[in-house]
Amino acid sequence: MLRLGDVLLVTLQGDLHDSTAEQLQQDISETIASSSTTGVVIDLSGVEMVDSFLGRVLAEIAAKAGLLAAQTVVAGMRPAVAITLVELGLTLPGLRTALTTEDALGLLAGEASPYRSRGTRRESP
Amino acid sequence: MPEHETAGQHGSPAREVGDFLRRRREQVAQRWADTPLFRTVFTVSRDEAVEAGKAVIEALAAVASAGRVEDTEADGFTVVREQLTRTAAARSRAGAGSAQVSNEVDALRPPVVDLLVADLSQSSAEHVRECATAATVLMGTLRLVVMESALNEGRALIDRQRMELLETATPVIKLWDGIVAVPLIGTLDSARSQVVMETLLESVVDQHARFAILDITGVPTVDSLVAQHLMKTVAAARLMGAECIVSGIRPAIAQTIVHLGLDLGTVVTRASLADALAYALDQQGSGIVDPVSRGAVAR
Amino acid sequence: MQTVGCVDARLPIHSDMDLVWVRQHVRQTAAQLGFGLVEQTKLVTAASELARNTLVHGGGGEVEATVLRNGHAPGLRLAFIDEGPGIADLERALSDGYTSGDGLGMGLGGARRLVHEFAVDSSPGNGTTVTVTSWTVRPPRHREEH
C-alpha cells in the first residue's frame, strides 16, 4: 500500500490467498477511516486471475470506501482476466475502472477539482 | 478385451507373434524396406528405411506381447505414432490418396505372415492358423493406426488454418491516439467472436486505447449468440477501463435485435464508424476542426 | 476415439493455501498442454471456484487432474471430490445467484460457463464430485451459451 497525497495506491501481485485478500480489505478500510483519503486505486496488472471471491472482495472494498467518501478505481486488469470474469457472470457494475494506474490517478484528480475538465480540445489540421 | 484373458498364458498366439517379431526383426525390416510404402518415403537410403521398419516392428511386438493385437490405443503404438503420422503425411503430400496409403500399409502384412508360417512349420496346423490370424489382426490394427494418424494430422492442419484465417480476418486498426477499431466483415460465429474479443482487448492494452470500436457494418446477420458476444466484449472492455462502442448496426439488424427481444442495454451504439469515432473523440476531448470554416466537423 | 489417461495428479483441498496450489498446478499443466492464455485463465478460475466449493461446502476433499487426448487435441479433466453433505437441489445450485455460503453465488453456475464439459454427481449425504473438462481446441459442436 502506497499513499500518494489523498490517494491510496494498492498494488496486487500474483496469486492471493483468500485470507490475504480479506486482510487487505480490512487494512484498506482502516486506513481510509483513520486518514483523509479521497481515492483508492487498486492496481491489478500483476494479477493473473480474479475469481468470484476476489471479485467480491474488490466490490466490497469499493462499497466500504464509498461509505467513507472515497472513490475506488480498479486499474490494469488484463484482457484474459476481464474475459473470464464476464464469462463467470461478474461484470462488477459498481466498480470504476481505468487502463493503467496513471489513468486511474488522473481520473481521481479530475474529479477532485471543482470543474470537471475533459482534457483540452486539440486542433488538428 | 478377449486378448487380455490369454495375455498371461505362455504360448498364446499373440505372445508367440510378439516373440516372432522380436526374433525376426531384421528379416522383416529388410523385406519391408522393399515395399512401396518404405521405398517411396525413405528415398535417401535403404538403411534408413530398415531402421524405421525396425522401430515399427518393435512397437508391434510390444503390442502383441501385451495381448492387445486389436487395440489401436495400445501403449506400444505411442512411440511410433509420430513416425507413422509423418510417413502417412509424406505419402499424401506425394499425391497418394487415402485408399492407396491404406493398400500400401496392407502390403506390409504378407512378408510378416509368410515368415511366421515358415517359422512355425513344426507346429500343429491349428496353432499355425491361430498365430497367422493374430498376426493378420495385428497388421490390420497397424493399418487403422496409420489411417487414424493421417486423419488427425489433416484435422489438426484444418484447425490451425482455421485459426490463422480467423486471426487475419480480424484486423485491429488504430484510428487515433487512444482509439482502436475492428471492422468486421462476414458471418460471426462463436469461435470468431471469441477471437475478435481477444484481439480487440489485446490491442486496447497495446495501444493504450480508452476507446474500442466494433464496426459490424459488414456483418449480414446478428443472432442472439452474436449479440451476447458483443455485450460480453463491451463488459470485458469496461472492466479493463476502456469503453467499447458498437457501430454500423444496419436497420435490418436493428429490427432483428428488437425482434429477438435482446436488450443491448448499456452498450453505446452509433450508426456508422465515423459517428463512433466522432463520439470517441468528443469523449476524449479532442475535436476535429474544419480548416476552411474553422468550425467543428465532428462533435 | 477418446482415450482416458490415468490420473496424473491428486491434490488435497483442506485449506486456502491448498487453493493456491491447485490454481498453480492447473495453470502449469494447462500451459504445458498448449492452452491459450484466455483458456488457461478460464480453467484456472473454474478450478478456483470449484476447489473453494469443495473446501467450504464439502468440508474439504481433493482434486484429480487427468490429461486427455481426443485424437488430435489434448485436454485437461479435473474432478473435485468431497465427502460432504452433498447438494440437495442441483438445479438450484447451478442457477446464478444461488449461494449457501460466502461469495457472489457464481460458484457452480459460473464455473460451468468457463469450461467445455461439466458434470455434477451428488446426492444428500453422499458427497459431491464435480468433473470439468476443457480441450485446447474447442470441440466443433457449439456449446449452449444461455
Rg calc of chain A: 15 Å
Percentage of residues in DSSP E strands of chain C: 25-35%
Principal-axes geometry of chain A comes out as: globular
The helical percent of chain C reads 25-40%
The CATH class label of chain C is Alpha Beta
Main sheet of chain A, how many strands, which sense, barrel?
A: 5 strands, mixed
The neighbouring-strand order within the major sheet of chain A is 1-2-3-4-5
Within the CATH hierarchy, at the fold level, what is the topology of chain C?
Heat Shock Protein 90
CATH topology of chain A: Transcription Regulator spoIIAA
Question: What structural class do helix, strand and pairing data of chain A support?
Answer: alpha/beta
Describe the structure.
Chain A is an alpha/beta fold. Chain A has a single domain, classed as Transcription Regulator spoIIAA, CATH 3.30.750.24. Helix content of chain A is 44%, strand content 21%. Chain A is built from four helices and five strands, in the order ββαβαβαβα. Chain A has helices at residues 18-34, 52-67, 79-88, 101-112, and strands at residues 2-4, 7-13, 39-46, 71-75, 96-98. The longest helix of chain A is centred in the N-terminal third of the chain and has 17 residues, at 18-34. The relative contact order of chain A is 0.17. Chain B is elongated, with a radius of gyration of 32 Å. The relative contact order of chain B is 0.08. In chain B, 63% of the residues lie in helices and 11% in strands. Chain B is built from 13 helices and seven strands. Chain C has 146 residues and is α+β, with helices and mostly antiparallel strands. Chain C contains four helices and five strands, in the order E-H-H-E-E-H-H-E-E. Chain C has helices at residues 16-33, 37-56, 90-94, 107-114; strands at residues 9-13, 61-69, 74-82, 117-122, 128-135. Chain C has a five-stranded antiparallel beta sheet with strand order 1-2-3-5-4, with helices on one face. In chain C, strand 4 and strand 5 (128-135) form a beta hairpin. In chain C, helix 1 (16-33) runs antiparallel to helix 2 (37-56) and helix 2 (37-56) runs antiparallel to helix 4 (107-114). Classes of the chains: A alpha/beta (125), B alpha/beta (299), C alpha+beta (146). Chains in contact: A-B, A-C, B-C.
Short description:
Chain A has helices at about 20-35, 50-65, 80-90, 100-110; strands at about 1-5, 5-15, 40-45, 70-75, 95-100. Chain A has about 120 residues and is of the alpha/beta class.
